[in-house]
């Protein structure tokens, strides 16, 4: 049991170390840094002025200034300190936040500068001496309590923004690849019968021992008869946008115009002047919903 717990503990420590050593790129750009600075400043200003935490309005009751102005000074000082660390100090000392552990170490530097800035505002308003360790420690505590939430929420928003950008770039890359990629279709003997861009293929219809390909050329729908079967074509066209919807039909989901939901199931109308309505059989309904409907096809 002891050996098992020791191994488990060691595995957990290795996982933590591995996580800390993973790359951290969220604050590589000036744009991301400015977003973090502005978000923390606006959040802090709204939070202090709306909730007046820690009875702050009583601290400055004797200060001859509107409470809104007083409470706004603190997030403004924090913004200035955060901007100073993100742009001036990082540039001056060439601080590169390449891993998560380096980012966590950098937090101590940023929190120190922000707390000093807030402490400076505090002593100026209250007329206290700057070298006042007890007062600084109190300021540090309250600064951390207010700052931690918006700071890490800002980091989280940057992470979500980065992931959305990655998804968008991948989507554009995939769509561009599908738009330019050419596919060759062969008959049952392996002889290439037709070759065209994937985007031009509309749908396939089974015709006894043949498959009828409906495709577009200059917004005109044409047909090509291929001696093969849909099962073989389904294997040859192993791409997400080619979806079998019926024993007699396989469609290119990129060319779906409208999906009709009826009491008998789904009906599909393809784009580019193809007037035939294709039925989605019960056998293929689930895969049709996951690979066509979830991509945002128009359902009526």
Summarize the structure.
With 300 residues, the chain is α+β, with helices and mostly antiparallel strands. It has helices spanning 2-20, 30-51, 56-59, 67-92, 100-126, 133-180, 230-236, 285-291; strands spanning 182-186, 192-197, 201-207, 210-217, 220-226, 242-246, 249-252, 256-262, 265-270, 277-279. The longest helix has 48 residues, at 133-180.
Describe this structure in words.
With 300 residues, the protein is of the alpha+beta class. The protein is 53% helix and 19% strand. A hairpin with a 2-residue loop joins strand 8 (256-262) and strand 9. The radius of gyration is 31 Å and the shape is elongated. It has eight helices and ten strands.
Structural class determined from secondary elements: alpha+beta
Question: Could you list the spans in which at least 5 consecutive residues all have pLDDT below 50?
Answer: none
Query: Could you tell me the strand content as a percent range?
Result: 15-25%
Number of strands: 10
Spell out the helices and strands N to C. HHHHHHEEEEEHEEEEEH
What is the alpha-carbon Rg in Å? 31 Å
Q: Any idea what the shape is?
A: elongated
Sheet with the most strands? 5 strands, antiparallel
Fraction of residues in H or I helices: 40-55%
Q: What oligomerization state is this entry in?
A: single chain
N-end to C-end Cα span: 62 Å
Give the neighbour order of strands across the main sheet: 5-4-3-7-6
């Amino acid at each position: 049991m002891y050996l098992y717990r020791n191994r488990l503990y060691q595995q957990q420590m290795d996982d933590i170390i591995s996580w800390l050593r993973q790359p951290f790129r969220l604050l590589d750009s000036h744009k991301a840094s400015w977003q973090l600075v502005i978000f923390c400043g606006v959040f802090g200003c709204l939070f202090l002025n709306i909730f007046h935490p820690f009875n702050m309005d009583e601290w400055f009751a004797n200060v001859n200034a509107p409470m809104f102005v007083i409470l706004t000074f603190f997030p403004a000082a924090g913004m200035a300190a955060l901007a100073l660390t993100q742009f001036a100090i990082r540039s001056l000392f060439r601080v590169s936040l390449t891993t998560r552990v380096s980012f966590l170490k950098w937090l101590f530097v940023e929190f120190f500068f922000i707390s000093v800035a807030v402490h400076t505002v505090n002593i100026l308003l209250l007329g206290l001496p700057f070298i006042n360790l007890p007062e600084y420690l109190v300021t540090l505590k309250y600064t951390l309590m207010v700052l931690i939430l918006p700071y890490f929420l800002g980091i989280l928003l940057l992470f979500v923004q980065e992931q959305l950008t990655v998804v968008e770039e991948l989507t554009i890359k995939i769509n561009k690849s599908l738009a330019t990629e050419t596919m060759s279709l062969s008959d049952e003997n392996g002889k290439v019968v037709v070759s065209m861009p994937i985007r031009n293929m509309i749908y396939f219809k089974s015709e006894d021992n043949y498959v009828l390909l409906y495709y577009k050329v200059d917004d005109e729908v044409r047909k090509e008869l291929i001696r093969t079967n849909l099962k073989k074509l389904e294997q040859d066209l192993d791409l997400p946008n080619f979806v079998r919807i019926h024993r007699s039909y396989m469609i290119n989901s990129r060319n779906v115009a409208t999906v009709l939901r009826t009491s008998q199931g789904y009906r599909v109308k393809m784009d580019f002047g193809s007037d035939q309505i294709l039925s989605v059989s019960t056998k293929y309904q689930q895969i049709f919903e996951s690979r066509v409907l979830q991509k945002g096809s128009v359902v009526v």
